[in-house]
């Protein structure tokens, strides 16, 4: 049985056998050989047997399908040929007795979408760069260059300002606290600020902090310039260059 | 700090085998969890190899071979504690073992596993992970994810290309950027967290978080103080909602410090070494 091996930068990504049915190739995940890359059309090409011969057919893709450097609409394939789609290279192996393809063995009961695939570092960098280059709209500014900082406006603490470098920031009297409250009767953990993928969230501790004058009811995402108040300490949350 | 813990792993309602593994080593306060992948039953092989290797390396660090791997892959700029470094080496060793096994047995090619491990010493948590199995901390009512998912969609969220909502609805959620066994080298993400009394740690495979929301996890952890019972409740909840994947939940609760007039005298020096 012949097989197609999807390669990316010389590493094997996926393998599929070619049986009686055509093998579909494209960006949409319901293809037999999905390639998640913006240079690849949703339904880019097909490979199938016709009259005992292996054929590749381009499905009117945007960027074309190439066999051994030649752009084709439809072409016969031989053992050892290379199909190029975007930056992906698909090796054609038309000998018999191939190894078990990666995704065999998945029982029918398992949902199709949950195929776990691992991309290596270069593949992932490239994929993400492609997406950025194609002008994906960015809804959140990455904010990587700006340091989240708490500037102390009033209250008894140990520093004048704190740059938040950790995932978890404790405001309290605990030795673990970043913002260390002074005073014997202050709570170990008065409030907390935690970093998530999409920003910094202020949460309660033993006390309920306020943001811009309003006590919070649960974890609240902090915005540049927010005023936090807890245990008699007032802090300005800002993003600093 | 006194810690009570418990864990549950479940095949779920759809899969025909369980490719998740976990171990709790109580005397060490070591918690290890892995979600395997690969055709046939190779996911099971990968995840149990991952867990057993980490447990073995952490239990007997003097005997663990390939110390040179650490220096080869080590980022010298990081000042991790000894325990954190040992944990990292253990995960690197697990990666090598899985990778080499797949080289040796071609039918295992493509097998891999996630890994998430927490090792507590005093009040310091050393955390290591590769993949999208998670560690959470529940502290004073706030549930905080401690690990960064090494998945494509999570990376897209971090770069502002997707909203968290879009990520959750994406078809590509199970595409991983890192896993054990895929390459001879792997970038293990490490972290050190200072823990406080009454903190609750939860480790889980994505079979839980695909079906149970974070507020529900937080609520269950607060309502049920027995760690094993809490883990079971969360597994049951995921199964009620379809149980489409294997589900593993491990819960560790740090006990309250004994109160007393002398508690303020206790000097806690934080990081060891």
Q: What would you say this structure looks like, in words?
A:
The complex is a heterodimer of chains A (241) and B (273). Chain A has one helix at residues 121-133; strands at residues 2-8, 11-18, 23-26, 33-34, 45-50, 53-58, 65-67, 70-72, 74-77, 82-85, 88-93, 117-118, 147-154, 161-163, 168-172, 179-180, 191-196, 199-204, 210-211, 214-215, 220-221, 226-230, 233-240. By secondary structure, chain A is mainly β. Chain A has a six-stranded antiparallel β-sheet, with no helix packed on it. In chain A, strands 14-13-23-22-19-20 form a six-stranded antiparallel β-sheet, with no helix packed on it. In chain A, a hairpin with a 2-residue loop joins β22 (226-230) and β23 (233-240). Chain A is rod-shaped, with a radius of gyration of 28 Å. With 273 residues, chain B is an alpha+beta fold. Chain B is 33% helix and 25% strand. Chain B is built from eight helices and twelve strands. In chain B, the strands form two sheets. In chain B, strands 2, 3, 4, 5, 6 and 10 form a six-stranded antiparallel β-sheet that branches. Chain B has a five-stranded antiparallel β-sheet with strand order 1-12-11-7-8. In chain B, β2 (20-25) and β3 (30-37) form a beta hairpin. In chain B, α1 (42-59) packs antiparallel against α3 (82-104) and α7 (214-223) packs antiparallel against α8. Chain B is globular, with a radius of gyration of 18 Å. Chains A and B meet through β12, α1, β17 and β18 of A and β8, α4, β9 and β10 of B. β12 (117-118) of chain A pairs parallel with β9 of chain B, so a sheet runs across the interface.
Q: Which descriptors apply to this entry?
A:
A: 241 residues; mainly beta; 6-stranded antiparallel β-sheet; 1 helix; 23 strands; B: 273 residues; alpha+beta; 12 strands; globular
């Amino acid at each position: 049985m012949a097989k197609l091996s999807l390669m990316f930068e010389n590493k094997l990504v996926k393998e599929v056998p070619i049986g009686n049915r055509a093998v579909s190739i494209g960006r949409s995940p319901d293809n037999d050989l999905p390639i998640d890359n913006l240079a690849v059309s949703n339904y880019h090409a097909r490979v199938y047997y016709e009259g005992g011969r292996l054929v590749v057919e381009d499905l009117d893709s945007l960027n074309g399908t190439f066999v051994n450097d030649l752009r084709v609409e439809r072409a016969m394939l031989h053992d050892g040929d290379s199909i190029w789609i975007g930056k992906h290279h698909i090796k054609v192996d038309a000998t018999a007795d191939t190894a078990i393809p990666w995704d065999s063995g998945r029982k029918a009961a398992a949902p199709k979408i949950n195929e776990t695939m691992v991309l290596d570092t270069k593949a992932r960098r490239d994929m993400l760069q492609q997406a950025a280059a194609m002008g994906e709209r960015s809804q959140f500014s990455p904010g990587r260059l700006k340091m989240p900082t708490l500037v102390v406006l009033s209250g008894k603490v140990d520093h004048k300002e704190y740059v938040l470098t950790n995932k978890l920031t404790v405001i309290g009297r605990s030795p673990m606290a970043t913002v260390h409250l002074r005073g014997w009767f202050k709570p170990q953990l008065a409030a907390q600020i935690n970093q998530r993928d999409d920003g910094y969230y202020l949460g309660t501790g033993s006390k309920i902090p306020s943001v811009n004058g309003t006590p919070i009811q649960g974890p609240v995402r902090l915005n540049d310039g927010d005023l936090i108040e807890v245990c008699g300490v007032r802090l300005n949350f800002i993003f600093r260059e | 700090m006194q810690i009570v813990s418990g864990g549950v792993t479940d095949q779920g309602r759809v899969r025909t085998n369980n490719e998740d593994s976990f171990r709790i080593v109580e005397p060490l306060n070591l918690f290890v969890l892995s979600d395997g992948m690969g055709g046939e039953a190779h996911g099971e092989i990968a995840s149990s190899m991952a867990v057993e290797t980490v447990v073995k390396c952490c239990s007997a660090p003097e005997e663990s071979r390939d110390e040179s791997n650490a220096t080869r892959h080590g980022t010298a700029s990081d000042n991790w504690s000894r325990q954190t470094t040992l944990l990292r080496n253990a995960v690197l060793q697990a990666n090598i073992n899985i990778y080499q096994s797949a080289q040796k047995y071609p039918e295992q090619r493509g097998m891999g596993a996630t890994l998430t491990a927490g090792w507590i010493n005093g009040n310091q948590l050393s955390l290591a992970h590769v993949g999208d199995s998670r560690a959470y901390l529940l502290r004073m009512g706030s549930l905080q994810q401690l690990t960064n998912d090494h998945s494509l969609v999570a990376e897209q969220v971090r770069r502002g290309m997707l909203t968290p909502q879009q990520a959750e609805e994406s078809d590509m959620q199970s595409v991983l950027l890192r896993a054990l066994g895929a390459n001879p080298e792997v970038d293990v993400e490490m972290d050190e967290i200072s823990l406080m009394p009454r903190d609750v740690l939860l480790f889980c495979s994505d079979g839980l978080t695909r079906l149970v929301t974070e507020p529900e996890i937080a609520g269950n952890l607060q309502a049920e103080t027995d760690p094993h019972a809490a883990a079971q409740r969360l597994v049951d909840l995921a199964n009620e909602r379809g149980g489409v994947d294997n589900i593993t939940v491990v819960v560790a609760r740090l006990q309250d410090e004994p109160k007393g007039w002398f508690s303020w005298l206790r000097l806690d020096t934080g990081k060891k070494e």
